[in-house]
Amino acid sequence: MIRIFSTLSGRKEDFIPQGDPVRMYVCGVTPYSACHLGHAMSYIVFDTVRRYLEFRGYGVRHVQNFTDIDDKIINRANELGVPPRELAEGFIGQYFADMDALNVKRADVYPRATDEIPKIIEIIEGLLRKGYAYEAGGDVYFRVTSDSDYGKLSHRTLEGMMAGARIEVRPAKEHPLDFTLWKGAKPGEPQWPSPWGFGRPGWHIECSAMSLKYLGESLDIHGGGQDLIFPHHENEIAQSESFTSVKPFVRYWMHNGLMQLGEEKMSKSTGKLVTIREALAKHSGDALRLWVLSSHYRSPITYSDEVVASMEKGVERLVRAADTGVAAGGANCVDARPYLDKFIEAMDDDFSTPQAVAVLFDLAREINRGRDEAMDVGEARDALVSLAEGLGLTLKEAVAPGLRPEPFVELAVRHGFPSERLSSDSERRISECIELVTEKRAELRRARQWQLADAIRRELKELGVTLEDTPGGTVWRYT
Question: How many Cα atoms within 13 Å fall on the side-chain side of residue 346?
Answer without folding.
Answer: 22
